[in-house]
Every structure is written in C-alpha cells, then in structure tokens.
Amino acid sequence: MAACCMHKLACAVLLCLAVGTASPSDTQSQQMTQSKLGQAGLDPIEVSYQPAIIGTATTTLFDYASEVGLQLVHDKFASLKLPDTHTSWDIPVIGTVNLDLSDIKLQSLDITSSSTGVSPNTQGGVTFVVNGLKTYVTCHFHYYKTSFPKVSGSGDADVRFEDGAVEYKLIPKTDATGHPMIISQESAQVAFGVIDVHTSHSSAAWLYNLFLTAFEGQFRGVITDEVSRQVTETLPIEVDKLLAGIPTIVDLQGLQFNTSLAGDPVVEPDRITVKDWGRFRLPSKECPYQRASTWISPASKDDKPPMFIADIDESIIDCFTWVLQERKVLQKHFRSSDVPYALQTDNWAGVVPNLPAQYPGQNMSLDVATAEPLLTTITAKRGVVVSGNATLLFALDSEDPDFAGKPLFELAIQSEIVASKIWVESGQPDSDWRLMVEVQIVSDSIKVQTLRTDIGPVKADALQGSIRWLASSIAQKWINGQLLKKGFALPDIPYVQIQQPSIAFNEGYLSVAADVKYVP
How does residue 208 score in pLDDT terms, banded at 50, 70 and 90? Predict the structure, then answer.
C-alpha cells in the first residue's frame, strides 16, 4: 500500500512538472538565464528587445505570387464594361472630326501565352511584370463633324490587342500596429505592341481609312488606361485583403502572443525578410527574456526552395513559461482528497520515519510551486530541452481552506523534459493544421533533495526512485497519449492554405519551412 501511495503522489508531482512547474537551479542554468535576460538591473520593460521570429520569403514565393496576381487581374477583367469616352482630332482637308465610343466591353483577357514574374527593385519594393497579354474589346462608335461639310455615321468595332506588357511596382510596409500592408509605388505601366481594329454596320468606309490611325490611338489609350487602373486598384486590394487575415495577436492556451512585425520588411535580390516580435507578455510588463541565438540568413541550394522559412528563437518558450509564472499558473495546491491515500501521514514511514509517529492517521496538503520559470534550450542534436526544478511543501491539511496547516518538510525536484519530435500535420487536406509534440522525460535527470524539515530526517532517495520509475513508465505515456495527443491548433489565415510544412532543430531556434496556396 505504501509503495502504491508513493507512486500516486509521485505521479501527481510529475503532472505538475509536465505543465511547467520547474525552474533552473544549478549554476550553469543560472548563467544561461542571465545571458537571456540581457541588461541586468533594468526594469524589464526598458530592455532593448530583439525580434524572436525572423521569416524569409524566397524566390519560389515570388514566382507563385506573380501567378496568383495574374489570375486575380484576369478574373477582374471578365466581361468588364468600360466607361464611355469622347475624343476629336483634325483630318487634313476635312477638318475636325468628333468620335464617341460607347458600350465598350472588354470581352476577355487572354493569359494563356503570358509570362509573369515578381522581382525586387532598387526602390525597396517589388515589381510585378507580365508579358504577352492579349485582349479583345467590342464597342459602338459614332463620328460626326459639326462644321461644313457636315458628315456623320456610326457602327460597331471589334478591337484586338496583342503583345501586351504590364509593369507594376509595390512596396511592402508595416502600419503603426505592426500589421503588414502593401502600398502602390506608382500607377501600373501598360503597353500593347499590336492593335487591330475592324468595323461593321458603318457607311464610313471611305472616311475610316482617313482616320484609322487616330481611331486606333484612341482605342489604345482607353484600353491601356483601363488595364492600368484595374491592375493598380486590384492588386493592392487583394493583397491587403490577404494580409488582413494575418493576426498580430494570437491566443495560445488563454495567453496573448504578440505576432506583430518589428519594422518594415527588407527587400533583397533573392528574398524578403520580415522580423516578428513573437513575444508573450503581460499587460503592463514585458518578458525579460530575449533572443539569444544568432540568425543566419538561409542559403538554399535547391532549385525550388520552400516559399517561406521562419526561424523561431527559444526565448519564445522562455517567455511563455515566464507569463505562466507571473500569473501564478505554475502553482498547484493539493489536498488529501485530491490524491487519495498518498497524502496521509501513515503511508510515509519509508520516506519520513518520524512522520506517522508524531502525527498518526492525519491528512496532509502539498503545495507545488516554482520560484522561476523553466529554462529552455534548443539544440540540433536533442531538440527542445526544458529543464528546472519544483519545490514541494508538505504540511498538515487544514480544515479551513483559508489557513495553511503546520509545515512539515519541503523538497526540491529537478527534472528535464525533451521534445525531440515536433511536426505539423492535418487530418484532411482542407482541415486546420496542428502543431504536434512528442516529449521524453529524462529519468536520469530527476533529482530529489530536501530543502528543509521540521519533522526529522527525510529519505529523499526513496522518493526519487519512485518518481524516476513513474516518469518513464507512466507519466511520459500519459503526457504524449493524452495531454499532447491532439496537438495545438495553428492560427487560421483566410485565403491561405499551408502546404508541405517541415520543422528542423538548430542551435537556439527552430526552423519552420512551408509552401502556401492561395484559396480565394
């Protein structure tokens, strides 16, 4: 019975450790903690912080974005009706002729033979380029001359445009709230190399040949201006609509995670780099931990690298546990009714010999707490390593919940939990992606020591053996099979679907790579 009780108590303690009731206590851990704290002696909110997430958009994303942009423009032009227009010009001998164009319809925008691309430019933005555009326009025209000799007529025209080229410059920016946005650098530049006009239902065949050049020029101006306007208006709106779905605050397990951008994106010849704060914080207090790893710009030898690569620093996990610590989430009070039989003095003779003799048949309470948050280390070899210790204060169970019972003894348990497998998965192609984690409790790292006792000797080694056994045989299976089984839902970004995500461990940070798919 005593062994069973010890196992139940040890399992309860391990459950507390699993949700974060641990903190570094040895000299090495303290030194690592100080290096992450940055400027010692300052109030945490005054510390100069570094962004914890650095993302890179590669040329693969540029190519895909250009294809999506071309399709957006194409869809916008489907059966588009253009505004009526009027012009006049002087024809030798005949004089001034007026021309009205009405019922102007852009029947289609042919992109089947078009080439497109997005590339960085020297102004700190990106240039969207399309070549080989074709389009077909129909309209009704009416020409007339008000002075002598008066002439007039009307008819229908079919206009074919070929060898079109579009160039449009955009600049990625960050607004005052840290949200990404796109601004237009200038209007889209549009030109067509070939134009062919055919008229019908008109009695002006003799006159048409005289003003054909002007007629073509007028059509060219109307169509190029409209294509420019549509591109200039469509792309920023569609891109901003997509960017609007990217959250700047994410709720994770009831905690607020700041994902706003730290400054404008940096455009380089082969990439766009964005820096994200990636910080958990309290309403009036910043997390004292900051980026410790050195960011190395990714250099992929692949012909087609992932569209997006994000490096996530280990300080994010430190700040997560810091917020839990500050909010006293990493504290747990157990009464004897919470852990049946385990918190009864008679069952502790093998660990605390004097306890059942001095307080026979009495119930105890247990307070599990941490003085500091856990310490997180990410390595290429081991993965995510979370280490530290928890304090366990045993006392006589008070009948009044508002008053603590008489303290008996206090223990410290040091442990190390390793997440060596982290991946992203989705049950179905269109379902939400979830972050999955599998952990291992390093049983050899579990150490139990006595901090103080008011009840005589405490045989900490006896409890240490039970906790180590439970860690490997029960607690680890429970954590992976129950606590972490469903994973953590990733934020949903409208119009964007994650494709082929992967996670790799590096020294001090995780690298997350993925492609994306635009889903209108």
Answer: low
